[in-house]
Amino acid sequence: MTSVEKVKTLSEVASFDMENCASSTFLPLGHSKFPVYRASTPRGSCKLFKTLLTNKCRMDCRYCVNSKCALRRQPHKYEPGELARTFHFFYKKRMVEALFLSSSIEEPEQNMEEMLEEVRILREEMRFRGYIHLKVLPGSTRDQVHRAALYADRLSINIETISPSHLSELSSTKDMKNDILMRQAWIRGEARKRAGVSHTTQLIVGALGESDREVFGCAISEYAHMEVRRVYYSPFSPILGTPMEGDSPAGKWRGHRLYQLDCLYRDYNFSRDEIDLAFRNDFLPNEDPKVTIARSRLAKPQEINGLGKEELIRIPGVGPRTAEKIASHKKRITSMLQLHRLGVNLPKALPFIKIDGSYQERLTTFACA
Ligand code: SF4
């Protein structure tokens, strides 16, 4: 039987990867508890079991709790087949629905092979058809990446930071070009061949004083050249027992603002020039970047009637669906109540619009309730 301590430790340390998790709960296991995440995946929202195969690592990433230069913790590792059995047990009990499997690195090729065997057992022997996100380890082979794409819905390898020189400051054992970018190109090749496989990555924000502009420039390059589906932003937070424990954390809000900017770029099709307007001295202010951009772009309030969808979605408080509804609205819009019913966030939108010729900067005469 799997030790409770092993499940708990290996699932807790996996929390540092930022798969799109909205919240977490702790489920009982013996006299202990382990985390399960509510994650948004291409197959919809599901209960995600995140775990490492092992937390033993020979790499020296200075920010990481599992690094060989961090204060040693009790090492754990799943035995062959044990992770597949453990996950399947939780799945049958309806405690979890999806798997996120990563690993620290003792021997990269061997560890990748061990992870592949667990997902092979799940898919081929246990007939598990749910969502699997599999990390590709630096050092894995081209053939392993190919086989990973046969089993997983999502493959990822973390680029971690904005440049090879930044990575060499964070780790003397990882090389961005050979260990990460080469494998990203292999994953891209697999994702092109298989429509059901997506490709993501993660960036640590602010570990070495890099600006938001630099971080987002790297993200744009990942979207353009590596064709990643999502970049996850992980604001740097120093961990006790690591060489960086005394360094300053990056505010969590930086991650939130970068996600908002990312959404404007990917979902709203904001241009590079528009994205540039979000920065102040190369950093994002702690406000919605759509508001910052609108203040620079819109010299005066826009008459809401007659605007097309592309112009409407550039107004704060107007999302793509609401823009669609306003653009196809048959009658002239003459009141805040009409806009509210169409889904506009009035407090955000009012400073930037006129309604039927009149401008009201604040919501003083209208109750949304
Ligand atoms: S490779 Fe680096 S980031 Fe990954 S577990 Fe090892 S020390 Fe941590």
Strand and helix map with partners:
Blueprint: H1 4-13, E1 21-29, E2 32-41, E3 44-52, H2 82-92, E4 98-102, H3 108-125, E5 132-135, H4 142-151, E6 154-156, H5 164-170, H6 176-193, E7 198-205, H7 212-226, E8 230-235, H8 252-266, H9 272-276, H10 289-297, E9 302-303, H11 309-312, H12 320-327, H13 336-342, H14 346-349, E10 353-355, E11 358-359
Parallel strand pairs: 3-4, 4-5, 5-6, 6-7, 7-8, 9-10
Antiparallel strand pairs: 1-2, 2-3, 10-11
Helix pairs in contact: 2-3, 3-4, 4-6
Iron/sulfur cluster binds at residues 57, 59, 61, 64, 66-67, 104-105.
Offer a concise description of the structure:
By secondary structure, the chain is of the alpha/beta class.
Structure description:
This protein has 369 residues and is an alpha/beta fold. Among the domains are: 4-157 and 173-194, no CATH class; 300-359. The chain contains 14 helices and eleven strands. The chain has helices at 4-13, 82-92, 108-125, 142-151, 164-170, 176-193, 212-226, 252-266, 272-276, 289-297, 309-312, 320-327, 336-342, 346-349; strands at residues 21-29, 32-41, 44-52, 98-102, 132-135, 154-156, 198-205, 230-235, 302-303, 353-355, 358-359. The strands form two sheets. It has an eight-stranded mixed sheet with strand order 1-2-3-4-5-6-7-8. Strands 9-10-11 form a three-stranded mixed sheet, with no helix packed on it. Helix 4 (142-151) packs across helix 6. The structure holds iron/sulfur cluster. Iron/sulfur cluster is lined by residues 57, 59, 61, 64, 66-67, 104-105. Residues 57, 59, 61, 64, 66-67, 104-105 line the site of iron/sulfur cluster (SF4).
